Amino acid sequence: MIHAIALCGPTASGKTALSVKVAKRLGCEIISCDSMQLYRGMDIGTAKVRKDETLGVPHHMIDILEPWEDFSVSDYRERALGCAEEITARGKIPFFVGGTGLYIDSLTRAPLSRVPESDPALLGHYQEIAEREGGKEELHARLTEIDPESAVAIHKNNVRRVIRALILYDMTGRTKSVLDRESRAVPADISVGLVTLLFHRRETLYERVDRRVDEMLRAGLEDEVRTLIASGALQEDSTAAQAIGYKEFSGYLRGECTREEAADAVRLATRHYAKRQLTWFRAEKDAMPLYTDTEDGVPKDADALTEELISLYQTYFANNH
């Protein structure tokens, strides 16, 4: 059994700086839990940790893919657990950090090996439907009919995940939500002390989001997107192309909107994403919550927050060793 810790929370909540401080104190190596930091060249828009920010703490699962490559949750689980095993063997503590809730969930449940990965014929059938007018809506409506729980969790524009859920049902006769619950009942290969960063005052988070987006724009997000498109790395039908910031500025560079409209769209999309993340992490029953602000909405001192987080992890280790 691997014993690890994890820090999750919405975008712009301060995970990077906080995790590095904790890692230095506890002797950790960090494993990213961010589905977009996997991609090379996507640095500014994903707020990827810079070398000078790591303070010498090794970081894993960053810059391992090209933007046109696919990467499933099961792919993440396999490679992240491999990293955790190697870190443990070095006498260090694996420290998962990020905001992709599905990645964290994948670590705490065992995979159902009997569930097939896909079926080429079914995949082709659903892709044909997705490509015609109204196809995305048609697929999502079918998912709503057979598996309303998954339909709520998966946006209609996330065609790949919609199709995957439909194929699972067609091949097994059981819905994705049922299969997910079954997988949670299987003992996992790893024990994770999960802390989620939360906010009493949501407006505080939204203010942080707006500052983050402004920083990205000043740092050259537009040029980063332009470079990726010019090199052919950011293909329109790829998962990476749907990332917040890249999707909106790709539209701007195609002449679909003004630069300011693209920037406003990034702010709005990031706020909506942060709201969804907060909802997700608040529902994590086994997580230890850590509020970054007081009940009055006053941000906590960074050093005090670090000590509070370390105390939570020490409690986890005391109860699990």
What would you note in describing this structure?
Helix content is 53%, strand content 10%. It has 321 residues and is α/β, with parallel strands linked by helices. Helix 4 (120-131) packs across helix 7 (159-172) and helix 11 (246-253) packs antiparallel against helix 12. It starts with a strand and ends with a helix.
Structural class of the secondary elements? alpha/beta
Which runs of at least 5 residues are low in confidence (pLDDT < 50)? none
SS field, number of helical segments: 13
Biggest sheet strand line-up: 3-2-4-1-5-6
Count of individual beta strands? 6
Which percent range describes the beta-strand content?
Answer: 5-15%
- Terminal Cα span: 11 Å
Helix content: 40-55%
Report mean pLDDT, rounded to a whole number.
90
Largest sheet: 6 strands, parallel
Radius of gyration: 20 Å
Give the CA-based shape.
globular
SSE order: EHEEHEHHHHHHEHHHHEH
Annotate the secondary structure layout:
Layout: E1 2-8, H1 15-26, E2 28-32, E3 59-60, H2 73-89, E4 93-98, H3 101-107, H4 120-131, H5 135-146, H6 148-153, H7 159-172, H8 176-184, E5 190-198, H9 202-219, H10 221-231, H11 246-253, H12 259-282, E6 288-291, H13 302-320
Parallel strand pairs: 1-4, 1-5, 2-3, 2-4, 5-6
Helix pairs in contact: 1-13, 2-3, 4-5, 4-7, 5-7, 9-12, 10-11, 11-12
Task: Describe the structure in brief.
The chain is an alpha/beta fold and 321 residues long. It has 13 helices and 6 strands.
Spell out the key features of this protein.
321 residues; alpha/beta; 6 strands
